[in-house]
Amino acid sequence: MQSALDDIRVIEYGHLVSAPYCTRLLAGLGAEVIKVEEPGTGDESRRHGPFPRNLPDAEQSGLFLSLNTNKLGITLNLKTNAGRDILKKLLEKADIFVENNPPAVMQDLGLTYAELEKINPALIMVSITPFGLSGPYKDYKAAEINCCAAGGISVGIGEPDREPLNMPLSQGAYQAGASAAIGILAALMAREKTGEGQLVDISEVEVWATLHMAQSALTCLYRGVTGIRRGIHGGFFLYPCSYLPCKDGYISLIAPQIDQWMRFLNLIGNPPWAEDPRYKDRRAMQEQYADETDALIIPWLKERTREELFQLCKQNQIPCSPIYSIAELINHTRFKERQFFNEIDHPRAGKLPYPKEPCNFSAMHWRVGKTAPLLGQDNEIILGQRLGYSLEKLSRMRSEGVI
Question: Cα separation of 20 and 173, whole Å?
Fold first, then answer.
């Protein structure tokens, strides 16, 4: 089978998570992705790790390796005229340009959509920023915690008597990258009809507000549930909504629907306390005395393993999931049966397992197997063979700090 984007060329000028994750998805769908990095330093994620044996190495960052599989890699100093000229030559024949830099930076570099559409009217440009490319906050700096809070999510994360928190592990950035990829697919379909490119403007704050906060806002509006911080107990749901201890670790138990809760009570033997009016108001149970209710079901949970509970809940249509460590996930029978991880041999990091496609496709191929690029590893292929620069010219540009 062919991949969906086999004939699509993508240029990425991004750092850390959102833009690289977007183009990683495009690469998996078959697109050719050329990643542009700064000479010497490269993508900031190269300095974030995790690293083998906790020894920093720009070529062995787990974050960089994961986000940049199946890409080609070149270096360009875009602060130089020569570097910008080379990038524009690449963009003349590209289908998509993905970046996640501050708007002022792209403005200073002359790499806005208004400028680039002049050289390639069919170009689809994607900008991923904290607050979008317009509005009063567009030039504000922001980190994950700012975006999560501004998107309305942090009000419900953390202990009630402590500071609000943000979602862990850069979830907002990953979801902004996924949203950008979806926007690109829509823009490609539009281009098939019009022949014209367009600008896809992704605000990470708006991604938080729409993908997460939208349903919570409706819950507050129609049911009066505020979702204020309640520690491990989810604020916007009815009891149970938490992670709970069992015989060999923890499970996540989220059963907001009344039928789910009744099936769970039946599963644990319909204990007498379930007839107490105190344990029939599940909003009060969640908001006022969730710990007390936890104590009533934990003894039953602690008699069973994560896998036993998962199978029992699955059979009874009760939402439940075991909580595994990374090592347990990689070695779990279920993931091995589905061949979820693919081993790739990197020249510096060696053989490591990488996640494969996010879902199974029936009519297309998901590309796997190419490692993340070493810094500048494809300069000669892209700049030399494709753009026609001689080895002597490349050597001179390297000494001048252009590549």
Answer: 10
Q: What's at 90, amino acid-wise?
A: L
Bridge partners (DSSP) of residue 252 are 243, 321
Dihedrals phi, psi of 49, to nearest 5 degrees: 75, -165
Q: Which residues pair with 75 in a beta bridge?
A: 37
Whether the pLDDT of residue 222 is over 90: the answer is: no
State yes or no: pLDDT of 12 exceeds 90: yes
Decide: 313 and 267 in contact? Cβ < 8 Å.
yes
How high does pLDDT run on average in the chain?
92
Structural domains in the chain, sorted by start: 9-210+362-399 (3.40.50.10540), 241-323 (3.30.1540.10)
**74 phi/psi in degrees, rounded to 5:** -130, 165
Distances from the Cα of 342 to the Cα of 32, 367, 370, angstroms: 20, 11, 11
| CB-based contact 226:159 (threshold 8 Å) | no
Q: Give the pLDDT confidence of 270-315 residue by residue, as tens digits.
A: 999 999 999 999 888 988 899 999 999 999 999 999 999 999 999 9
CA–CA gap between residue 378 and residue 187 (Å, rounded): 28
- Pick from 293, 260, 254: nearest CA to 274: 293
Other Cβ atoms less than 10 A from the Cβ of 258: the count is: 10
pLDDT in tens, 46-93: 999 899 999 999 999 999 999 999 999 999 999 999 999 999 999 999
Least Cα distance to 132 among 166, 102, 152 occurs for 102
Beta-strand relationship, 350-355 and 341-346: antiparallel
Q: Which two tokens stand for residue 175?
A: 């979801």
